[in-house]
Amino acid sequence: MGKNQKMKKLKNKPVPKxxxxxxxxxxxxxxxxxxxxxxxxxxxxxxxxxxxxxxFSDSDGSSKNSDSESGSGSEQSEPSDDxxxxxxxxxxxxxxxxxDLNQEDQSAGSDDxxxxxxxxxxxxxxxxxxxxxxxxxxxxxxxxxxxxxxYKEEEHIGYDKAGRKIKKKERMDKLDSFLxxxxxxxxxxTIRDELEDEDIEITKEEFKxxxxxxxxxxxxxxxxPHPDYVDWFAWDGAGHPLSNAxxxxxxxxxxKHEAKxxxxxxxxxRKGLITFDKPKEKPRYYNLWVDDPEKPxxxxxxxxxxxxKLPGHEESYNPSQEYIPTQEEINAYQLMFEEDRPKFIxxxxxxxxxxxxxxxxxKEFFERCLDLYLCAxxxxxxxxxxxxxxxxxxxxxxDLKPYPxxxxxxYKGHTGPVASICTDPTGQHIASGSxxxxxxxxxxxxxxxxxxxxxxxxxxxxAWNPVPELPLLAVSMGQDVFVLNTGLEKEEHKMIADLxxxxxxxxxxxxxxxxxSISWSQYVKYDGVRIKHFKTVSSVEWHRKGDYFxxxxxxGDSKAVLIHMLSKKLTQRLPFKLHGIAVSSxxxxxxxxxxxxxxxxVRVYDLLKKKFIKKLEPGVREISSLSVHPGGDNVIVGSRDxxxxxxxxxxxxxxxxxxxxHPKDITNVAFHRxxxxxxxxxxxxxxxxxxxxxxxxxxQNPLIVPLEILHGHKTVxxxxxxxxxFHPRQPWLxxxxxxxxxxxxxx
Amino acid sequence: MPKHYRPAGKKKExxxxxxxxxxxxxxxxxxxxxxxxxxxxxxGVFPRDPKKKVKGNHHTYYHMKDIAFLKHEPLLEKFxxxxxxxxxxxxxxxxxxxxxxxxxxxxxxxxxxxxxxxxRYPKFIDALRDLDDxxxxxxxxxxxxxxxxxxxxPERIHNCRGLSLEWQAYISRTHKxxxxxxxxxxxxxxxxxxxxxxxxxxxxALQQVMPPDVDYKIMLTFLEFYETLLxxxxxxxxxxxxxxxxxxxxxxxxxxxxxxxxxxxYVDAKDQTSGTNDEESELRLAQLQDQLPSNExxxxxxxxxxxxxxxxxxxxxKACKTLFQNKTFFLGREVPRESLLFVITSFGGVVSWEGDxxxxxxxxxxxxxQIVDRPTQSHKFISRDYIQPQWVFDCINARLILPxxxxxxxxxxxxxxxxxxxxEAEGYVPEYADTIKRLQAxxxxxxxPMPGAEMDDLDNAHLLAEGIIDRAEAKxxxxxxxxxxxxxxxxxxxxxxxxxxxxxxxxxxEIKKTGEEDDADDASPKQLTNNDExxxxxxxxxxKRGLYNAIQISNQRKKANVDTLEKRKKNLKKNKETxxx
Lengths: 747, 581
Hints:
Number of domains of chain A: 3
Structural class of chain A: alpha+beta
Largest sheet of chain A: 5 strands, antiparallel
CATH class of the largest domain in chain A: Mainly Beta
Number of helices of chain A: 14
Number of strands of chain A: 33
Oligomer: heterodimer
Strand order of the largest sheet of chain A: 10-11-12-14-13
Strand content of chain A: 15-25%
Radius of gyration of chain A: 64 Å
CATH superfamily of the largest domain in chain A: YVTN repeat-like/Quinoprotein amine dehydrogenase
Shape of chain B: flat
Radius of gyration of chain B: 34 Å
Strand content of chain B: 5-15%
Helix content of chain B: 55-70%
Helix content of chain A: 10-25%
Strand order of the largest sheet of chain B: 7-6-8-9
Distance between the termini of chain B: 84 Å
Largest interface: A-B, 92 and 119 residues
CATH topology of the largest domain in chain A: Methylamine Dehydrogenase, Chain H
C-alpha cells in the first residue's frame, strides 16, 4: 500500500462513516424534516431491540461474510479500517506508533525526537489530514457538489470519466421492496445509500460501536478512558535534577513582600488593631448614678410617656358576674362601629389552671412600642374640676328685676306673618306691619285693634315717629315708603297736614340736589305721603327729631341708603361709599351720627362733619340687625348665625362680647330706652332677654347677664320670631311672630 | 402673591423652622430610616405636635432641636462605622480573603448604651419612674421562645429571664411588692421602690402566641435598651442592699429551672452574712463606746447610720413583711410556681414546692397552707389548708389573712378583684369588695354595720353621727334625695302645664289677660332654677363651654357604665331568684 492509500484508509474512520450513513437513512425514509437525533430508523433502538439484534446477529453470523463480500469495495474497506484502529497492521501501525511516541517525547520535553524529524513531520501531516478531512470522502459517484435532488427525476446519476451517464440501478417498486423486506430477515439492518445507489448492511460490530457512541462512551470497546499513569522517565541512577539551572538569587535574599507584611502587622499591633492577650473583662454593669448629673438635656423638655392603663375589675381572670356581658350584648357589639367596639371582652375562668395564654400580649406590647416612638407627645393639663365651677358667677336674676318674663297679652288679628312692630313714643299704641298687606294699630293695654291700613302689599317695616306730637307712621312696602297719619293726635292736625302735603310742582326742581329717581307724592287712599323708590326698601328708621328718616334699599348700590327730610320733601343719598350690601341703618340717639350695617361690617358716620368715623367688625357671617344703646356708646349687632355681638364703641372695633344664644338666625335686636335691658328675637321661635348695664365710669365694662328665654311663638315655614321691640317706658317686650300673633311679655 | 410667600434668602421662621417632618429629618441626618428609628428609640426622641403643621396634617413632626440632639450623638457615627465594617467583611469574604475576614471579625465595632441611660435618666429615680414598660417587656421576652427567623436569639431570652428574676429577687427580698393581680392578660404586679410605684405585667407561663404581623426588629431595639437599663437598675438596687451584682447562682438549682429560688437563697445568704457582720460590728461598737469618751463623734455617727438603716422600712413595708410571717406554704405541681414563690416570699412566707430542688417536701409538718389548683385533692393532711392560688393574691391585696373556706379545693371561687381600681371614684363597688372591707375593718377591731342596715337610711346627718360615712353610700342617699326633688318639681310643672292649658283653651276666641298674677309668681322661681344653667352657659366662652360639655359627656359615660353593671347585677339576682323558686 502506498502512502496515499494509507491516508485514504485513515480518512475512512468508522465513526464519521456511520454518521454519514445515518444521514442517508434519513433521506431514504423520506423524513426530510427530522434531525439526526430523532431518527426512527432501526439503528436507533431500545435495549430490547438491541437484544433482538444480538440474537439475530448470532444466528446470522455465517451469512454476514457472504454479504460483505457481495457488497461494494468501500464496505470491504471498513472492517479493515476497524482492524486498523484496534490492532494496527504492519505498515500503518509503525507510523502510528511513532506518532504516539513523538507526541509523548515532546510532552516530556526531551530532544530525542529530532533524529527522525522528516518522518514525524509526514506522519503528523497525515494525522492532521485524517483529523480534519472527514467530509472529503472519496465516492464513486460523480455528481459533484450539487444537491442530490437535482437527479431525483433523472435516470442516471452522475457521469463517469468518459462522460457517459451512470445509470441508476433498477429500483423495485414499493410492493416488491416491501415483500423483499419481509422476506429478508436482515432487511431491518440494511440501509440504502442513495448517493452511491446501493444497500448497505450494518454489521454487528458497527451496531456495537453505534450503541457505545449513543451512550456517550468511546466508540472502541477496548478504549480505556482512565489508563494507569506510566512514568516513562528512567529515574534510576540520575544524579542531577531535571533542570540543572542554578538557584536564583531571590531565594537567598529576604522577601520584600514579607517585609511589607511584617511592617503592616507591626503597625497593626502598635495601633492595637491586633491584640494577643484577651482584653480584661470589665464588669458589664456598674453604678451609673454615682455623682450628681451635670446640666441635662438639650433644652427641650422631656415628656415622659404616659403609663399604660392599669387593669380594672373586668380584666380579672375571675371577675364578678356583673362584669361579664350577656350574649345579647356581645352580639350588639358586632353592630357597633369598629372604633366604638370594646377592645376587651371580660371572660370568666373557674380556676387559674384553665386560663390560657393571652394571644394578644405580643401584639399589644408591640403597639405600645409603636406608641412610644411614633406618637407625638404633648403635655395636656388634666382638669379635675367640678364642671359647675366653669360657669361664670352671674348676679342673681332676682336682683336684676324687672324684666319681661311671662306672656301677658296676645294681639291677634293679622292673617300673615307679622314682619315688623313699633311702639309709639308714649307707649300707648303699637303699630304692626304684616305680610298680609295690612298695618294695624293696637292699644297696648287692652289689645284692641284701633286702626287697620290696608296697603295691599306685604309690609316690610314700620316705624313710629319718635316725636310724641307727630303721630306719623313710616311704612316700607315693596318699593314704596309711606308716611301715614295715624290720626291718633287730634289737636295738631294742622301741622301734620302741612307735613303731609306734597306740592307736586316742586318735586322735580329740587331733585337736582337729591336723588332723581325718588318721587314724593300724595297718598290718596289714606292720609299720607308716598315716596316711590326704585328698589325694594327693607327698612325705615326715624331720626330722633322726627323730621328726617332713613331708608335702606339693599339692592340700591350707591343709593342704597337714603335720608329723607319730611318737612321739605327732600331726599339725599348717603355721601359715603358703602363696601358691601346695606342691611339696616339707624340714627344715633343723641348726636348726629349715623350707623349703617352692611352684611359684614357696621359703618359709623358723622353726618354733620360728613366724615367716616369707625368700622365695627363683628366677624359674623351675615349681619341681620343693629341696635344702638340709648347712651349711644354701645351697639349690639345680631347676625344670621345666631350670634349677638356687643360693641363698646370706645373700646374697640371688635366686639366686647359675643353671645351665642340662638341656634338659628337672629331677626332683630333691641335695646330698652330706659331700663338696662336688651333683647334678641330669632327664627327658632324664642326671644332672649338680657340685662345690659352700661356704667358711666369708663373703666368699668358693661355688665351683660342673660335673663330670660321667652317661648310661646310657633314656627311657621321655618320662621319664628320676626321682630321684637321694647315698650318705651315699661320693661315689657313685644314680639312679632311668623304665626301672625304679637305677644306682650311683662315682668 | 401666595399666602406663605417668603422672599428668597430670608430664613424660615416659626413652626416651619422649628419642626421638620420625619423624611426631612432622615435626610438631614443622612442615615437610613432604619438607623433613624433605632436612634430615636435609644435616645428617647419622639415626635411633637406643632401648633401649626406646615407640611400638612398627615406627617409626623420632630422638633429641630431633637434632631440636632440626634445629630450630635456619637452612636450615629458608630452606626456608620458598623455599616462600613459590614461592607468590609463582605468584601473580604467575597474576595476569598479569609485571613482578613477573620481578622476583621475579631474586632467588630461594638457599642454600649450606658451613657444614653445616664443621659435619659440623670437620676436613679427617673429611671425607676420609667421602668414600667421596661419590666413588662423584659418579662414578656423572658416568656417568649427564641426564633431564629425573627433573630430572637436564645441568649437574649436567657438574659431577659435572668434580669427579670434578679429584679423579682430584689423586690421579694426587700418586701416591696404591694399589689398583684391575676388578669386574663397575665399577672400584674405593683411594687413601690424609692417611693415610685412600679407596675409590670408578666404573661402567664404558657406557650406564647407569636403574631406574624409584628415587626420584631422594633421590639428587639426596645429590648436592647431596656435590657441595659434594667441591668443598671438592678446593679444599683443590689448595691443598695450590699449585694454583689451580677449574682452567682447555684448551678444545680439553675439547672432545675428554679432560678428564682436560687436567687432568693443567694440574696438571703448574703444578707444573713452581712447582717451578722453588722451585729458583730455593732457589738464591738458598743464595747468601744464604753471605753471611748462619750462625745466621740465617729462612733455615734455610725450608730445613727445603723439606726437609720433599721428604721428605713416604712409602715407599709412592715405590714407587707409580716403578712405571711411564720406561715409555710407548699405549692402543688400545677400552680404557677414562679409567681407564687415571688409573691409569698415577698410577703414574708416560706415556700416549698413539689419537685426537684425543693427545700422541704410535702410531708413536712410545718406546712400551713398547701396551694393546689385541681378539682379534688385525694390525700389530705389534716393540719393544713388546701387552698386555691387566688387566695394568696386576694390576701396580699387586702393585706389580710382571709378566711380560707371560700378558697378551698373544688369550691367556686369568689371574684378576683383588681387592686388598682378606686371603687369609690368609679362609682360602683362590687359586692366582694364590700365583704373584704368589712373583714378589714373587723381585723382593725372596728365594727361596720351590716350592709342592709343603712340601706333604708336616707339621712346623711344620721350617717355622720355614726361616724362611718361610706362615700358611695352617702352619694347614693344624696342621689335619692335629688331624685325626689326632681320628682316634686316635675309634679309642680305638670300642675302648671295643666293650668296653662286651661288658660289657653279659655282665650281662644278673644284676647284677654292670661293667668293670674300670683300663679305667674309661683311658676317663676322654678323656671328660674331650670333656666339658670342655660343662662350661665350663654355667657361662657366657647372654650369653656366645650370643656363643660366634654366633662358632662365623660360623666355620663361613666354613669352609663355603672348603670349597665347595676342592671346586669339586678338581672342576675332576678334570675337566681326565679331559678331557686
